[in-house]
Specification:
By secondary structure, the protein is α+β, with helices and mostly antiparallel strands. It has a single domain, classed as Cathepsin B, Chain A, CATH 3.90.70. Helices cover 21% and strands 29% of the residues. The chain contains three helices and six strands, in the order H-H-E-E-E-E-E-H-E. The chain has a six-stranded antiparallel sheet with strand order 1-6-2-3-4-5, with helices on both faces. A hairpin with a 2-residue loop joins strand 4 and strand 5.
Amino acid sequence: MAFKLKKYVSKRYDDEIYNCLHFAVDAYRDISGHDMGLYVSELMTGRAKRRVIVKKLKEFKPIADPINTCLAVMHGAELHIGIYHNGKIIHFNEQGVQAQPPHIAEINHGRIKYYAISH
């Protein structure tokens, strides 16, 4: 399935309403046809209200190297989430949607860990 970034050009970043995780859930669903939102719904809110349900995180398996299509978690000054797809980290921030090679995303957002999502 071809992923179209244009679909997200009109989206505006808002920490509580539509942030990097909201985008990652939408992009992952568009690319894979699977909804990872079921596993991260408690995190899809503003920073102050986020909570982690550990038993739901078992659906995310750490992997050493990225695969099409997987979750990319960037560990910098703040945690940032994107999707690895076709050699790029596709993510969303205050500047809008970005598709960057991993080495560029790592410079901007910190160390990257990849996670395969169980279906």
